Amino acid sequence: MNELVIAWLGALTVMNVLAVVGLLALGRQVGLIYTRIPPQGARMGNPGPEIGESVPREELRDLGGELVSIADGRRASLVVFMSTSCDACTLLAPALRSIRRSDSARLQVVSVVPRPSEEEARTFAAKVRFDPVPVVYAPELAFRWRVMTAPYAILLSADGVVRSKGLVNHIDHLNSLLRAAELNVASIEELHAAHTTDGPIALEQAVTR
């Protein structure tokens, strides 16, 4: 009887070891697959002003009463529309703070809460802790720019030209907007499409145009 128990325990141990080895191998393969897949850029969709469209300078007050100038001719602006009931918006706060701190000399980052009320915008900003990113309650800006979804980001040049835009559910999406503007394309998807459809020549044209 004892021999049967020992044999059973030995077989169980071998099975557990094999299961662990199998899981490790599977994890490695998933990691390899993930590294071969290019990061997805922000999905543009239809909201907001069109790529290449110019928007006028905006003078707004943040929730602390400080003046925030968008498209003021001095710095590019990354304007991110938020919702107080959006989990993805909350998760974006550290990325926005990081971008603000690292690129403040050439890029202004502004968080816009267009609804439902200024009081709820204040509660949201205090909970999420956006500082040093200014938070603006501006329903009129969302109306003028035709933005009805969140989190949604629009990148403007210093003189107010829309360079890139899209839904931004995580930091890779934010980085894709900045990268697309550097490469002078509307979106990372446009760059990938040029590369996969027409080869390196189209890719070079997309980057340098």
Characterise the protein shown here.
- The chain has 209 residues and is an alpha/beta fold.
- It has a domain at 58-182: Glutaredoxin.
- The protein has 7 helices and 7 strands.
- The strands form 2 sheets. The protein has a 5-stranded mixed sheet, sandwiched between helices. It has a two-stranded antiparallel ribbon with strand order 1-2.
- Helix 2 links the parallel strand 3 (76-81) and strand 4.
- Helix 6 runs antiparallel to helix 7 (200-208).
- The longest helix is centred in the first third of the chain and has 35 residues, at 2-36.
- The protein is globular.
- The model is unreliable at 23-44 and 194-209 (pLDDT under 50).
What's the quick description here?
The protein is an alpha/beta fold and 209 residues long.
Question: Keyphrases for this structure?
Answer:
Glutaredoxin; 209 residues; two-stranded antiparallel ribbon; disordered C terminus; globular; 7 helices; five-stranded mixed sheet; 17% strand; alpha/beta
Shape: globular
Query: What CATH architecture of the domain at 58-182 do you see?
Result: 3-Layer(aba) Sandwich
Cα distance spanning the termini = 80 Å
Series of secondary-structure elements, N-terminal to C-terminal: HEEEHEHEHEEHHH
Main beta sheet: 5 strands, mixed
CATH class of the domain at 58-182: Alpha Beta
CATH level 3 topology of the domain at 58-182:
Glutaredoxin
| Average pLDDT | 75
Task: Report the oligomer.
Answer: single chain
Bin the strand percentage.
15-25%
CATH superfamily of the domain at 58-182: Glutaredoxin
The neighbouring-strand order within the major sheet is: 5-4-3-6-7
Please bin the fraction of helical residues: 40-55%
pLDDT below 50 for ≥5 consecutive residues: which ranges? 23-44, 194-209
Number of helices: 7
- Let me know the number of strands: 7
Secondary-structure class: alpha/beta
Global Rg:
24 Å
